Structures are given as C-alpha cells and as structure tokens.
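General statements about sequence and structure are easier to judge against a single worked case. No coordinates are needed to read the tokens, only the vocabulary itself. The sequence in question and its structure tokens are set out directly beneath this paragraph.
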Amino acid sequence: MDPAAFPNLDPELVEFVASLPDMGNALDDIPGARRMLASMMPAGPVPGEEDLDITDETAPGDPDVAVRVYRPRGSTGELPGLLYIHGGGFCIGDAASEQRGAVSLARRLGVVVVNVDYRLAPEDPHPAAIEDCYAALQYLAGLDGVDTSRLVVHGNSAGGGLAAATALMARDRGGPALCFQSLGIPVLDDRLGTPSMTTFVDTPLWSRKQAAKSWELYLAGVPADQYAAPARATDLTGLPPAYVLTCELDPLRDEGLTYAMRLLAAGVSTEVHNLPGAFHGTSIVPSSAVAKRMDAELLVVLARALGVTIAR
C-alpha cells in the first residue's frame, strides 16, 4: 500500500504499511485467510505461559463450546474473571490466535481468563458466535476460585463487537453480572453508514470492502438484531462501565465513538480513547510506540476496574 495515501499515519507505521499487499478481497477466500492468519502465529510458547496453568476445557452449550482457561499458577482465594473474545471479522481466528494477549492479561493482572473458541461464519452465522460467548461467560462465572463480583469481558475488532453484545445479553438474560466491558476497535454496526466507514474504503488491514463481506457472511441474509450489531440496540441503560478504543484511520472508528457517546448518554460510565495515526490492527506492529501505548493503557484500565495491581 502507498503510505502517502494516509497523511496522518504514525511515522513508525509507515514502513509496515508500505509492505502490505492489497487485502481488500481477503475474505473472498475464507480458507486461505485462515491459513494466512495461522502462518502469522508465533511458534512455541509465548512469554508468561510458565507462570500460568493453561487448560483446554468445554463449556456447556448447544452445542458445547471449546474454551481455553488460564489461571495464575499457585494462586489462592478468589480471583477476578475475564472473558477474552478474539477478533477476525467473525470468520477467522480462534483461541490460539489470541494466546499472547490472553496470557499477558492473566499473568499481568492475576486473573482467571477464559478465551472462547466461538463458532465462525460462514459455516455458523449469527447467532452462533454470541451464544457461544454467553455460554463461555456462564462457564467463567461458575469456575471455582472466580470472584463473580469482578467479571469483565474484553475483545478486539469482531471480538469487541461480541464483547458489547455479551454485555447486552448478560443484562437482558439476568446475568452473569459484568462489572466492566472493554471494547477494542469494535465491530458494532452492519449498516456501514458512518463517515469513517464511507471514507476509508482502502485502509490498512481493514477496509469498507472487507467490512461489507464480513457482515454478509456473518448475517447470512438475516436482519441484524442488537446481539449481532450492538449499534442497533435502542436501550443501553443498565450496562456495565466501559472502555472503548478506536483508531483514527479505521473504518470502524465512528461506530465505536458513537457507541461510546450513546453509553455515556445512557448513564453508563465510559472511557473512550481514539488513537491518532493508527489503523485497524496496529498491534500487529508491537515495536511501535502506539502499539505499546495501547497495551499499557488496556492493563491500566482493566486493573482499575478489577481493583488489582499490575505485575511486571
């Protein structure tokens, strides 16, 4: 891609953007996109795994849901619980693709993490993914040694949208009660009508074309409800406090900002941060200052919400 097309691009991200191919048609070949993502995953253990007990388990559901559970090794007493929801446009990704992030949060925050391997479109369109995420939340709340007064949900991209939907579903179904929701660069609105979505038709890693294809596969011709597209929810009262992160050069920017403003208007305590010069998936350049800032801020926000201290 030509970095000159994005005058506000963070200088540290220019070299990476220049190396990117055109990915606008990536979701036209879902098996290929899944193979490409798998090839980008680090081989072997990620830093911090040695401090955790990590098990692959099954949460009861219809059908049952695969989850990966991370518990600080040697922990005693009740710990906060965090539901971790991976991204991938509802069509790619799995628990393994977010191993590094899940390990980091479990270790640095001293919490029990459940990383949910929800069903993917197009094989399993909405509401499969959100039902799996809700089942995983119920499973987290039922684990021994988890403090059910300190449950949070976190996700990025499609995972951020599913995190918002999980908060809505938990409210509407009477629990498990969440004390916080963390929505990173969230996918929230299938209508694709915001200024950023109509402007950013060819941006790094995620563009309007990819967003449209993702929604087409996820909805499979069925009209979206609030659990598919949380931006469609008419009532945001009674939801847990929120953190919403958006990126300046992301088609999803404005739906995240709008949702944050609507949460505030509904009386939901909300922190919102738009990162200048960043694009969707900037964390793929972990050496950049902006990516390090994103990671550090997430830890601070979650630690404050859970009342824990960040470990080194």
User: Anything to note?
Assistant: The beta strands are 52-59, 65-72, 79-85, 112-117, 146-156, 180-184, 242-249, 270-279. The domain at 3-306 is CATH 3.40.50.1820 (Rossmann fold).
